[in-house]
Structure prediction request, 119 residues.
Amino acid sequence: MSYIDGFVIAVPTANRQKFIDHANTFDACFLEFGATRVLECWGDDVPEGKLTDFRRAVQATADEAVVFSWIEWPDKATRDAGMEKMMKDPRFSPETTPMPFDGKRMIFGGFVPVVAIGA
Prediction:
């Protein structure tokens, strides 16, 4: 069964193209390391909730957009091996490839699909 890594981040709107360029570099590496698909989704309709919402979850400011992303892997073993390779790969060094967002406010986790409908 597939395995999903999910992410929610706040990205300064001024850094939109920097984020896209950064994602294109990193996402190609995830595919190289065994991922089957990566999606990076720029917030377009992110409503304010009564108790909580995506913006509050990542402490997004007025000049930041919420990005919702996920990586699909064939299984958890492939994901674990791919993430281990990523951590050792010099292309992921924050010194050489800084993130165009505040990584301390990123929310992420690994998930096992329990329902899958459609393509």
